[in-house]
Amino acid sequence: MRPTRVAAALLALGMFNAWGNGYAADKLDFGKVEYERKCAVCHGLMGKGDGPFATVGMSVPDLTTLSKRNNGVFPVQHLYDVIDGTEILAAHGTRNMPIWGTVYRKQLEEAYPDAPPFAAEVYMHFRILALIDYISRLQAK
């Protein structure tokens, strides 16, 4: 019964997203909310790398210059891999940034232990893509 509820919730989320794009666009920016909750503490509200944790002695990248540093192309796959934790930046030494892919998967698995295996992946992809969408809108012109 629980997998059915999870599937129904995912379907409802998709339907809300499809129906509510026009209505909710002015009301809720999921990527912005996710960014403010997960990323702004280090990268700052505007993505400049000036969040409160940036003063702890670690180098925090300016997310507004990702496209500029990549010859005008927004590096979607690279950003996805960094957020997911697939790409560990060896040049930076130990990784200070949380591996959000693991965090997102664990959140869903703990909340819905009987969820089908694909549900955690869908949940993780949705959240990471929402973050990437918002970060793409922070790019300096």
Attribute tags:
141 residues, 58% helix, mainly alpha
Summarize the structure.
By secondary structure, this protein is mainly α.
How would you sum up this structure, described in words?
The chain has 141 residues and is mainly α. It has one domain (2-137). 58% of the residues lie in helices and 0% in strands. The chain is built from seven helices and no strands. It has helices spanning 2-24, 30-38, 40-43, 66-69, 76-84, 100-111, 117-137. α6 packs across α7 (117-137). The termini are far apart. The mean pLDDT is 79.
Query: What gap, in angstroms, lies between the N and C termini?
Result: 50 Å
- Helix count equals 7
Count of all domains: 1
| Strand proportion | under 5%
Radius of gyration: 17 Å
Q: Label the structural class.
A: mainly alpha
Please tell me what the overall shape is. Answer: globular
Rounded mean pLDDT score: 79
Number of strands: 0
Low-confidence stretches: none
| Helix-strand string | HHHHHHH
How is the biggest beta sheet arranged?
A: none
Helical residue percent band: 55-70%
Topology, pairings included?
Layout: H1 2-24, H2 30-38, H3 40-43, H4 66-69, H5 76-84, H6 100-111, H7 117-137
Helix pairs in contact: 2-7, 5-7, 6-7
